[in-house]
Amino acid sequence: MTDRILDYLRRNPSDAPRLVVDLDVVERNYHAFAHALPDTRVFYAVKANPAPEILGLLARLGSNFDCASVVEIEQALAAGATADRISFGNTIKKERDIARAYELGVRLFAVDCEAEVEKVARAAPGSRVFCRILCDGAGAEWPLSKKFGCVPAMASIVLEHAHDLGLVAYGISFHVGSQQGNVEAWDNALATAAGLFRELAERGINLAMVNMGGGFPAKYLRAMPGVPAYGEAIFRSLSRHFGNRMPETIIEPGRGMVGEAGMIEAEVVLVSKKSADDEVRWVYLDIGKFHGLAETMDEAIRYPIRTLRDGEATAPCVIAGPTCDSVDVLYEKTPYELPVSLAIGDKVLIEACGAYTTTYSSVGFNGFPPLASVVI
């Protein structure tokens, strides 16, 4: 929560839920990453929040951009980035989208199998490719599945195939899991990457880059280490596994860049109980899973929630959204403590919502409009 956001909300009342993002926080976070890993290039994960104001600020600050689609590439270019500062980081791409990215000047592509390499070779000849390897995600609040990446043994085959097809086998990438609380989580993956560098060098293929992905956390309910602690741990691991032959390095912060910069103002629509003797109230908000809070799935991300009645007596509450869908329940397994006096029409402030809210908001499920967004 920032004073600038609170001041904006006071001066601009609204009847609809809205996300407000403070660019000053985004700028501070960018400088924190750049300072913590000064020899590493920052590729902002556009999917976290593609607001033009955020992309424009980061482009001016010198950030690069990790893009998952042609639309995101075009958004980064429109914000002032040049094509050499863009990575097409999705390992699942239509060949015509690869061709369009190549036409726009992009020359850096992610792959994780031989078939994807062949698409890049046909549609973007001579480009640089990096192969994503699987990571277990231990220590992350939102561990990633096996949807992206391959085992290290396959990665060497994939990169050798890229080399044989005239592409530049550029490096290795991995992701240690979203909202990663363990600063040492990068160590095993970097050890694996160093082993692949040595193995491929023996075959005459000299890799140059390690993309260390995202995973850098925002502060929700649980305390997390600061960016400097991650930088120090990652640098120690790089030194341990690569010695004096340091590779080029990339990080892809998304949540860690913009998560804490945003706050959602929502309204209480209903407060009720399911029986007369029920000790747990149900608090229904005018925003739910379908309108920006998809990351409450399985209660993986627990956002801090503030009210104007904080400091008064509290009781446990289930929190749910407004739609006619039974999955639109945000927190039930572990109810939230909210003021007993909380009433219909009260405003609540949901903190650290700058990442993965507007991008997860539905276009019009149940007739509710997408989450409004303001950048200040």
Shape: elongated
CATH architecture of the largest domain: Alpha-Beta Barrel
Number of E strands: 18
CATH superfamily of the largest domain: Alanine racemase
CATH topology of the largest domain, by name, is TIM Barrel
Residue share in β-strands: 15-25%
What tags apply to this protein structure?
Lyase, Ornithine Decarboxylase, Chain A, domain 1, Orn/DAP/Arg_de-COase, pyridoxal phosphate, 8-stranded parallel β-sheet, TIM Barrel, 376 residues, single chain, Orn_de-COase
Walkthrough of the structure:
The protein is an alpha/beta fold and about 375 residues long. The chain has two domains: about 25-260, Alanine racemase (TIM Barrel, Alpha-Beta Barrel); about 260-375, Lyase, Ornithine Decarboxylase, Chain A, domain 1, CATH 2.40.37. The protein has ten helices and 18 strands. The strands form three sheets. Strands 1, 12, 13, 14, 15, 16, 17 and 18 form an eight-stranded mixed beta sheet that branches. The chain has an eight-stranded parallel beta sheet with strand order 4-3-2-11-10-8-6-5. Helix 2 runs parallel beside helix 3 (about 50-60) and helix 7 (about 150-165) crosses helix 8. The model has no long low-confidence stretch (mean pLDDT about 95). InterPro entries: Ala_racemase/Decarboxylase_C, De-COase2_N, De-COase2_pyr-phos_BS, Orn/DAP/Arg_de-COase, Orn_de-COase, PLP-binding_barrel. Keywords: Lyase, Pyridoxal phosphate.
Short description:
The protein is of the alpha/beta class. It contains ten helices and 18 strands. The protein has two domains: 236 residues, Alanine racemase (TIM Barrel), CATH 3.20.20; 116 residues, Lyase, Ornithine Decarboxylase, Chain A, domain 1 (Beta Barrel), CATH 2.40.37.
